[in-house]
Structures
1.
Amino acid sequence: PLVMAGGVSGQVVFGEGERSAAGVPVFIEHEETRAVVHAVTFSDGEFYVFGLRPGTYTLTIQSEYLDRIQGIAESVTLRVDPAAASVMVEGIVLRISVP
């Protein structure tokens, strides 16, 4: 059967000045299936992923990356719902801070 797919786009920012964070590995995990899609931010800190199945996703920064820079970042949970007005979830911001 045909399954409608959606997408997500956003940006990773670093520090209090919210500078763009390039080359950051972002994990997008489907909560129900535990399938993980990887993305890496572009030079402007932006990332995007298409072809996501409907469902709830958690976006996180790869823990090894955070360990390497001694940073912390909160995850973001969102819902991809192709039945909604838009199949694209946009404007997600993941913030990295260094204590």
Note: DSSP finds one helix and nine strands in the chain.
2.
Amino acid sequence: MDIKVILGAVAALLAAGSAYLYIRDIFRGNTKPHIFTWLIWSIVTVIGFLGQWFTGAGAGSWATGVSAVYTVFVFFLAFKYGTPDITTFDKICLGLALISIIPWLLTDNIVLSVLLAAFTDVVGFVPTIRKTWRAPKSESFGSQLFDAVKHTLSILSLQSYSLTTWVYPAAVLGAKLVVIAEIVLLRWVKKPVDK
């Protein structure tokens, strides 16, 4: 069996594991998803997956496909279980993210679509990064860690490397590493008191 297929399958399983951990933590009341972030991710993860799939990412797109289903599900959960902490800054991020989708809708350029999806996804992280800074226990550390490993394996399992296949998972990996660093710093180094 091809090593890229194995890595892609492991990355997809990690995506499912991450989804399980995050959703479990939502129902336990330990994690409060930011509805704006999950709306943005629902849109761009689907775009990212389709961009990868149609440009030959093969097994490297499987984890993004699993993540697309999971992000849409968490978006709907955020209506009931999400954080009520929505600021004007969060609204600006949502506006920027939605505006960046317009060029994708107006063009048939897959490269531009994937670049905008990656940019939009990173902008979508900003409300969660802000929320996590204020309440580091409001994010699932295990899920974030699974996602970081998943994106690393996803990149390694790409069956063709081009801007359209690797930029999206690489951008998301970078943002995940910021959230992980934030959680580690604020939970274990500073030991804050969450409300």
Note: Residues 5 and 44 are 24 Å apart (CA to CA).
